[in-house]
């Protein structure tokens, strides 16, 4: 019997679907970590009313984009030993244009460690993303795209 929920989706999804996925991850994080919700509430910001442009600057959007790039590489047969340095190199080059530095990531190389590393340096100005939330977010994105 077919399981239609596990059908692989094309990466990237339509913009509206990606926005919905980022918003879903943000909801999940604010429910698990009240300090995140408090930051938004203290500024009088309703999460559901966040502009899409602002939403795509949040750590949750970074997770979605990194998992998309990673999954595309995995779908093409790349292993973590090759894929993670390629992701890091591409991000480092893009960030250097803005004057930002993404330090080296030491082995062992994994998607979870890379996302943690990336978020720690790029989204350090806001409420830190809890380490235990990262695998939850990764699973959510992989599930959305019908991957394991």
| Main sheet overview | none
Q: What is the number of helical segments per DSSP (H or I, 4+ residues)?
A: 7
- Looking at the chains present, what oligomeric state does this protein adopt? single chain
Q: How many structural domains can be distinguished in the coordinates? A: 1
- Helix residue percentage: 55-70%
Q: First CA to last CA: what distance? A: 19 Å
Question: How would you explain this protein's 3D organization?
Answer:
The protein is mostly helical. It has one domain. It is 60% helix and 0% strand. It is built from seven helices and no strands. It has helices at 15-32, 34-42, 52-55, 59-75, 80-96, 111-122, 133-144. Helix 1 (15-32) packs across helix 2 (34-42), helix 4 (59-75) packs across helix 5 and helix 4 (59-75) crosses helix 7. It is globular, with a radius of gyration of 16 Å. It starts with 14 loop residues before the first helix and ends with a helix.
